[in-house]
Design a protein that fits this description.
Keywords: ATP-binding, Cell membrane, Membrane, Metal-binding, Nucleotide-binding, Signal, Translocase, Transmembrane, Transmembrane helix
Number of strands: 20
Region (Disordered): 626-663
Shape: elongated
Protein name: Cation-translocating P-type ATPase
Strand content: 15-25%
CATH class of the domain at 295-313 and 446-558: Alpha Beta
Signal peptide: 1-28
Structural class: alpha+beta
Largest sheet: 7 strands, antiparallel
Membrane topology: Multi-pass membrane protein
């Protein structure tokens, strides 16, 4: 059904009712019998009231007494006592309000509609050397898809050839086109703004990031918040109570019109709509900015967050550590040999810090051939490997203390480790057959926007930002000092992070945990709100995280908290407007002056006020920058920035040897 057809269908009932009311007034002014005017007014009430009566009957069959029943009883009662104008006015205004409500809810779901609109229908694929245009859903994984300038990417995939730029706003909220080269990931629904790309499909149809986002937003907008569920329970007894009150008032006062008027003015329409319209608008605003919130309950919980716990590596830092220092601590072994042995041992390791050691060895031209004959990872400490009959250990001091039974050379190693750690680097001691031969250190550059993220979190009401890291404390504190972190918890294993989150919760805090969803999974699951960053490329994160930040942008985190707080504040304002309107109308009825028609008019105005207030959430606050545009800059004096940009070492007791090719 096209938008025009929907528009005509939505307004056809109130439009026909309005024509009949106008015709009734015209007939009443002529010389025709008043019976014709009354008949037209009754017809107007029937036209506008029939849909309401049908909904009330369906609700009753489901054992639900709702607002439609109140309006139906009031309109039928008004007709029976001869108040035809009141019956027509009440049903007409209710029909207008319902149409406006429907139109506004559709608008608040605009984010979902926009996502669906960007879903591509066709794809150009290479088959048997020819370009063929096929439905996007028929592309097979592994096929090569061609994306030309101005075309939408029809699949998730990896660039296998060509260069270009893509507008990824529909996925990540990023306002600027992103350059794509060979090996880069692309997402269905993004738009080419230049260049020509050959993409190897990795996800098609329902298996694309866009499809998962659409599914997630659909579910989130339908999910009820705790306040919404509370309002449903309130309405379940409130509506029958109003009916009983109207019957009692009618019996006591013998005034049927007063009783019917009570039914109309006590309609909880604004109250019923106050929560869902706010939730839909808030979640829709987030979706436009690349912030996927799981549902109303998580939106409400996010508004109460007062502690944010963040993982250091890959969250506060870029997640691309580089080797910064090689320190030789054995008189017969130089820095090149220390690096070579460390690299050979790390060749069989899956630890993230193995990669920078191996890359540095390769850049220095040091031979790292084959794998160790035996590799033994020691969780939280390092790795032990067997090389050419020697036992090589690479890791932290606790690991080396176990390997070095007599404690020889450990004092010197401790001093070097302390100095490197205080400079914000992660030191790893290298030992051969229990003898310390040197120390290698790596550093991961702190993100440029980390400091601004912490400042913004504080500005939106978060009391404390806690860093949780597996690094030793001096390394963690050096990084934390650059960005204004309030508390550092260092040397943590995954289970330690979980216990740390539980400790914060026992202290009465509402905790959000931000991590990569892998080694932080236990803590993410335990936290009140688990936040996954850079979720655009991770389907699991989109489905499992309470909040998924589609772009790997730290500044979207305070935006998410701010959005949640604004949404909950809007919900509270709407509830106050709804209850205040009912209270004022009740007083007006009891003290005289408020008729059935006036009551319904004021009631519908309150509904529009509530809807309009919620729709403010669809606008981006004036003080928010477009996602991904502005970045905070750390001073060049940052020790972490310095260590990430050049191979430098602190002064140590014995000379530091750093291969020239690594400088």
């Amino acid at each position: 059904m096209n938008p025009l057809t929907r528009l005509q269908g939505r307004w056809s009932v109130p439009a026909l009712s309005a024509l009949l009311i106008a015709a009734s007034y015209a007939v009443a002014q002529s010389t025709s019998p008043t019976a014709w005017a009354d008949a037209l007014m009754i017809a107007a009430a029937v036209v506008a009231g029939t849909p309401v009566l049908i909904k009330a009957w369906h609700a009753l069959t489901a054992k639900v007494i709702g607002i439609d029943l109140l309006v139906s009883v009031a309109a039928i009662g008004a007709v029976l006592v001869g108040n035809y104008w009141e019956a027509a006015a009440v049903t007409f205004l209710f029909a207008v309000g319902h149409s406006l409500e429907s139109a506004t809810l559709n608008r608040t779901r605009a984010a979902l509609a926009e996502l669906i609109a960007v879903a591509p229908d066709v794809a150009v694929v290479m088959r048997e050397g020819q370009q063929l245009e096929v439905p996007a859903t028929e592309v097979a994984k592994g096929e090569t898809v061609l994306v030309k300038n101005g075309a939408r990417v029809p699949v998730d995939g990896v660039v296998s050839g060509g260069t270009g730029a893509l507008d990824e706003a529909s996925i990540t909220g990023e306002s600027m086109p992103v350059d794509k080269l060979s090996g880069d990931q692309v997402f269905a629904g993004t738009v080419s703004t230049g260049g020509f790309l050959q993409v190897t499909a990795t996800g098609v149809g329902a298996d694309t990031t866009l499809a998962r986002i659409i599914h997630r937003v659909e579910e989130a907008q339908e999910a009820k918040a705790r306040t919404h569920a509370l309002m449903d329970r309130f309405s379940a007894w409130y509506t029958p109570a109003i009916i009983v009150l109207a019957v009692v008032v009618g019996l006591v006062t013998a005034d049927v019109v007063l009783a019917l008027t009570l039914l109309v003015i006590a309609c909880p329409g604004a109250l019923v709509i106050s929560i869902p319209v706010s939730i839909v608008a808030g979640i829709g605003r987030g979706a436009k900015d690349g912030i996927l919130i799981k549902g109303g309950e998580f939106l409400e919980t996010s508004a109460k967050i007062d502690v944010v716990a963040v993982d250091k590596t890959g969250t506060l830092t870029e997640g691309r550590p580089r080797l910064t220092d090689v320190v030789a601590l054995h008189p017969d072994i130089d820095g090149s040999e220390v690096l070579r042995m460390a690299a050979r041992a790390e060749a069989g390791s899956e630890h993230p810090l193995a990669r920078p050691v191996l890359e540095a060895a390769a850049e220095a031209g040091l031979p790292v051939l084959g794998l160790p004959s035996h590799t033994e990872p020691v969780p939280g400490k390092g790795i032990v490997a067997s090389l050419d009959g020697h036992r090589i250990a690479v890791g932290n001091l606790p690991l080396i203390e176990v390997e070095n039974h007599d404690g020889h050379d450990l004092d010197e190693a401790r001093e070097v480790v302390a100095q490197l750690a205080s400079a914000g680097r992660t030191p790893m001691v290298v030992a051969c057959d229990g003898r310390v031969i040197g120390v290698v250190a790596v550093a991961d550059r702190v993100r440029d926007d980390a400091a601004e993220m912490v400042a913004r979190l504080h500005s939106v009401g978060v009391k404390k930002v806690v860093m949780m890291t597996g690094d030793i404390e001096p390394v963690g504190r050096a990084a934390a000092a650059r960005v204004g972190i309030d508390e550092v918890l260092a040397g943590l294993l995954p289970e330690d992070k979980l216990r740390a989150v539980e400790d914060l919760q026992r202290q009465g805090h509402v905790v959000a945990m931000v991590g990569d969803g892998v080694n932080d999974a236990p803590a993410l699951a335990t936290a009140d709100i688990g936040v996954a960053m850079g979720a655009a490329g991770t389907g699991v994160a989109i489905e499992t995280a309470d909040i998924a930040l589609m772009k790997d942008d730290l500044l979207t985190l305070p935006e998410a908290v701010s959005l949640a707080r604004r949404t909950v504040n809007t919900m509270r304002q709407n509830i106050a407007v709804a209850l205040g309107t009912v209270a004022v109308l009740l007083a007006g009825v009891l003290f005289g002056g408020v008729t059935m028609a006036i009551g319904m008019l004021v009631h519908e105005v309150s509904v529009l006020v509530v809807i309009g207030n919620a729709m403010r959430l669809l606008r981006r606050p004036a003080d928010n920058r477009p996602v991904g545009r502005r970045r905070a800059q750390l001073p060049e004096a940052s020790p972490i920035r310095a260590s990430a940009s050049r191979m430098s070492s602190p002064r140590v007791p014995r000379g530091v040897t750093t291969p020239d090719s690594l400088r």
